[in-house]
Prior knowledge:
The protein is an alpha+beta fold. The protein has two domains: 4-113, Arc Repressor Mutant, subunit A, CATH 1.10.10.10; 122-154. The chain is built from five helices and eight strands. The protein has helices at 4-8, 37-48, 56-63, 72-87, 124-154, and strands at residues 11-14, 17-20, 26-28, 31-32, 53-55, 97-100, 104-107, 112-113. The protein has a five-stranded antiparallel beta sheet with strand order 4-3-2-1-8. Helix 2 (37-48) crosses helix 4. The radius of gyration is 27 Å and the shape is elongated. The termini are far apart.
Amino acid sequence: MRDRAASDSANVRFDSFDVNLRTGDVHRNGVPVVLQEQPLRILIRLLEARGEIVTREALRSELWPGNTFIDFEHSLNAAIKRLRDALGDSADSPRFVETVPRRGYRFIAPTSPVSDGTARPRRLPVAIAAAVAIAALLPWLVSLRLGPVRARACR
Length: 155
């Protein structure tokens, strides 16, 4: 069953992979993973439905529109193979993408949501550093401003 928080997040983590479902960015341990368009779209679709079977027909209609003439079976099998190769997965003992014979595929690895990196808390250390710098410089700035005033007051 899918984790509700993970399904609402645009960024999903599984194993050592982070995937942005909106942009299609895939990283493994912070290093970009290059995926061709169809394997990437399959991965995104499987992650969106994680734990559920995505039928071969659903993948066909999403990836190859009705007016596209291809050998669908060969093309889908090749795209799944490229996806598994990129993930270091295997059809014989899958960790991520499970084949459901004659039906489709299912994403089986545990997932968790990932912050998209644009949240405001990342700016907090900069604000704190700025406040500390100002606090450290404040006595010096005050002494500069009051120095000439004291000199005039002493005359």
